[in-house]
């Protein structure tokens, strides 16, 4: 027994060695070897040796695994040989693969991981992968295009799906909501569109969700509150609009929250007091208003706090003294007031307070104090106007310069007798060149994995294709904002030349070629280039491009600013590669400059050279100038409304309990060229509508309330109140308003393709050929917008005037509902809400037109009419002689009785349409226009039916509705049939609407009944709003 006990371990060891050798000698089934061979051909993977066993992990040759590969360059194939060998992991990172994604992976039935990060692969994601038991997919940093196949949603074992930094398009498939085990979902830096699918509410195991740099629509969904395990959420320049949902405060495990460049209405700071573990908080350019929340002070876990480019006001809370150890604090470009606290100046690590409204006291008299950048900290950033920087008010110019030349990021350099100043300070802060110009750099590169990391100057790493590359061998970088400010230029006209060359990306067929860099360029406060792309402009990396901009210098100052707005890749070739990049600045006069000032002739800013004028003359000139200046200031203040009494309308506007961007009358006049008749694009319900362009290049539509308008002042204010609370991809966006004196204006987004009515049945020269998929998309869009108004928004709203003229089309022919001047709040307990009828006959529901009985079913009726117009391509009404009017709806009912509904389809489509979708839309139109309101479906049901996701049988609903009776006058039907027979072969000209415009209703035989009666209380208080919840 004793000997047996001693021998047992030896036997066990021997058996283990034998089994180990057996396992390593096990071979892969021929079927999987054949699959790997096919995969290698598709990937263009050339170093796999099929004469050796791919599953023998003791072999170091054969190309199946590289044990010496560094991090980020992993290269191996792994098998599981517990019984029979099967390939389970294929990881090929940064291997310069130039093929495409193999659908042949589907022939490896035990494959759990595909990692092809940072290669040069193209093609689309194969739908065949949906059959695999994959746990991880990573395709980061390739050339993948096309949509994400819905079949990926079948991989219920998937925990990580990473497809960042590609060229993927289309919408996120709702089927991805079936990935109940998904932990990481990264889709940043692609070309994805559409909303975030509601099915994503089921992804409750998510810990990391990143969707930056895309073209999504809609808002950040409230259902993110379901992702209670979320650790990181990144939504930068995603295309989403609206408010940051308050439900985000429920994600108590968040340590990293980054939301930037979120357009939409102004909103208060989101309630984040429960995020006690937050380390990185970035809420940049999100239209946040109000004060800094005091609860952020005790957040000792914070490492980055970036609240830049918002509209935050008030002082820095005293509780923030606990943030002295935070590595990076950016309050750049807000409206913060009060004094900069001592703790921040004395102990702050890296603080940026530039472009604010702090008190001008000795403490802020320096542009940089310790680690605090206070450049222009007492002067907010004003669009189309460069800052008057108080900390430079006593700057002594060494001389008057008639040019500016900077070698950005490089040493002093002379090229063709022109000397370029050095610009070598590597910290992101304020810098004084002592040569008539200063700079201010804001930001640090987050997640930085560059080598060297943390730098703001870069030496070129690619071959330069430039005849004289000396200006381009290095460049200045900025993670957020970079400003060059010249202070001593002589007056006159100049050309600003900005030199660029992309020196961080390569120009070869590797992943280092796949980076995308975008930033905005401002000169003298005006944006002169949006989403500037060096590689595109220069036609390749390592090539130079010079952008030139004319400028007139009147006060000796010039400001050049580069701003990163969250777009572009952030990890190609390595993490931390993003932001703006500039090689050189050269500003040259368009005139022959005078001789340079003599030595010692330096002046302070604003001073001129002496000319020996007498003291008496100087005193007289000063007095005269003072009188003129006082009169001029008074005139300006009066013109801007500072000295005149406020109108009742302005007082009412100030008292309204809602927040919205307010434009000055001066801004609107500049944008519309003082309401130039050439910019008039229509006559809306309020009065004339003008097209304009804001200083940042945004195209707007301005509704101007006229004195003759039937819609009154209070209704105007109530339209603002409602629209400001509504943000949806299928509602026309309200940018803001202007209330000054007797001027009442709404500022909307401008829609390029006018109205649906104009596109379908306007004059021939204005019509747009709308194919069937476009018509289907437009109809679904209108339905989604109405479903939001009726059921999803905080306010339950009935539009009351849905018609084809009130549906506008954007550049991509997406539908957006406009004209809320007739909208009515839907009090759920009172369906008899209307004291008057307001709408357009021909679109109004019978119970509303005849009895004033208004519910959301009135909008459903109107939608049904519009849906039939979309199918038929003609207006709902057409007039003939003797005042007779015939309606498309009646004709549709006649065709239904004859079982010829397919004849409703627009003959211009020929046979090029989806018959099933067309019949569904027709039947929905008929159902929505039922005489019985209760028979009409809700708009959310309509959306489901149009998209084919509803189980409701439209045909059965129709039969039930008609069984309740729908008797028609036979004589009327015969006359109608004859009339339609006459016009069926003719081209449609103007059926109901004679003058078509973008932002107002047609002048139409479909009569609008709007008047100026007050619909809502002037100042809706909290009790009023609560009664509508």
From TrEMBL:
One of its GO terms (cellular component) is membrane. Residues 675-952 form the Protein kinase domain. GO terms for molecular function: ATP binding; protein kinase activity; protein serine/threonine kinase activity. Keywords: ATP-binding, Glycoprotein, Kinase, Leucine-rich repeat, Membrane, Nucleotide-binding, Phosphoprotein, Receptor, Repeat, Serine/threonine-protein kinase, Signal, Transferase, Transmembrane, Transmembrane helix. InterPro entries: Kinase-like_dom_sf, Leu-rich_rpt, LRR_dom_sf, LRR_Rcpt-Like_S/T_Kinase, Malectin_dom, Prot_kinase_dom, Ser-Thr/Tyr_kinase_cat_dom, Ser/Thr_kinase_AS. Its EC number is 2.7.11.1. This is non-specific serine/threonine protein kinase. The gene is BnaC01g36570D. The chain crosses the membrane at residues 615-639. One of its GO terms (biological process) is regulation of innate immune response. It catalyses: L-threonyl-[protein] + ATP = O-phospho-L-threonyl-[protein] + ADP + H(+); L-seryl-[protein] + ATP = O-phospho-L-seryl-[protein] + ADP + H(+). The keyword Transmembrane applies. The keyword Heme does not apply. It comes from Brassica napus. Residues 1-25 form the signal peptide. Pfam families: LRR_1, Malectin, PK_Tyr_Ser-Thr. It is found in: Membrane. It comes from the Eukaryota.
